Amino acid sequence: MIEGKALISGVGISDCGRRLGRDPWSLTAQAALAAIADAGLTPADIDGVSTYPGALASTPGMSGAGADDMRSLLGLNLRWYNGASELPGQLGAIVTAMAAIGAGLANHVLCFRTVWESSAQTQIGSRSETMRSGVQRERSQWIDPIGASHSTYGGLTMQRYMYESGTTREQIGQIAVVARTNAALNPAAVYRDPMSLDDYLASRMISDPLCLYDCDVPMDGSVAFIVSRADLVNDAKRAISIAAIGSAPGFDQSAAMMWSRTDLKPADVDMAQLYDGFSVLTLRWMEALGLCPRNEGGRFIEGGHRIARDGELPLNTNGGQLSGGRMHGFGALHEACVQMRGDAGERQVPKRPQVTAVSSGAEAFTSCLLLTL
Amino acid sequence: MSDMQRVAPPLTTRTADFWRSGADGVLRIAHCRACGLYMHPPQPLCRRCHSFDVGFDPVSGRGMVYSFTINRYQWKPGMPPPYVIADVELAEQAGLFVQTNIVGVAVEDVAIGMAVKVEFEQAGDAFIPVFRP
């Protein structure tokens, strides 16, 4: 299995925020150089690049830089690269990097995700345009005539989930409330002002039952990782292992694949950084991963104590995408690495995590990773 | 929702027969004539038996609301909110969904499990299937 052959050896993050007005290539290079230095490497060591979603089929807001942009930005001598949107979730870019290392095509792969949507909205147009790749425009015939949009999926899946499980808005709201509490301790988070459950319940509806605070917030920023061949890692003590990969399409299929590739069990997970493009998706990931019983997610998170930073299963400890900002799964993986290294400063979880579940995406666009020290 | 100014879908070789189907008031869904599987959105071969003998065949137009959402945001100039977007499960086959609007009922009265029937609203050369209780 490839899981033992590649480690995350370095992490880096750029300045992040609303409408930074910075060249997205500058943000990308900032994150990349930080990750390379963090791994104890120089750009000359990097022989692979992997990114989501790639630049060719995407708008500038959706993709701040492509794989070939990175090659030319840092003058890399590559043996392998990959920049694609049709992957198992956003973190599919990490999965393919591990596969390339396992196959002997590269030694140190620079993986990154740059979003520039916040600035692009002011420079190019509305969200519906900045988020649309060419493929999505092809699919627009099923969406435009009925007046649907990105939030439609969130509303439909939340409604059905509440119907099947008996979960209430008061329960789901804890995903957003706990994220906001965590974001207060993250200087890079977009929304840091306190938010109560009453604030959540009173926020305006976007697509009932989906309210404003169920939706993640666009931002500018770049996150980078170095995935290295295990025997070439400079500082093994700081490296994060990927114990198992789940890359099958579907929440349940992805989770089942991940658990089939390790002896670890859901009960071993002591921290979770789960996709929260819409808050209900976090619950669906928790249940798929077996972190709580099926249809019990709402009751599991009720009151927010279990998933708080000092709870039994700290969740989205940087504020997630709901309050921290939309980094498309890469923010979750970055936070997992920082916490597992004990480098999270003021927001460090009390008991340094040993086993972390990370997930990205939804429905047929999913992947999850099980991280260990 | 008859006052809605809908965006007309492009009529492509893959989907034109679906969008034109409602001209005579009948909903037609891509149907494998070898094994009987209905598929939506349409595709040119059968997902189950891989036969290419797939065409658009009439269905009853009856279905049930599987999930729905009350859209509150104006995404299109000609479609003032609020309106309901729903996944309707067609009577012909479990798991056969059409994403659509629910019309002819107050948005707050739509419910999962509600029985609905198709009707059509014209946009350009297309007939958009929508559903009414």
Automatic annotation (TrEMBL), chain A:
MF GO annotations: acetyl-CoA C-acyltransferase activity
Pfam families linked to this entry: Thiolase_C_1 (PF22691)
SUPFAM superfamilies (UniProt xref): Thiolase-like
Residue stretches making up the Thiolase C-terminal domain: 250-360
CDD domains on file: SCP-x_thiolase
Protein name: Thiolase family protein
Native species: Sphingomonas montanisoli
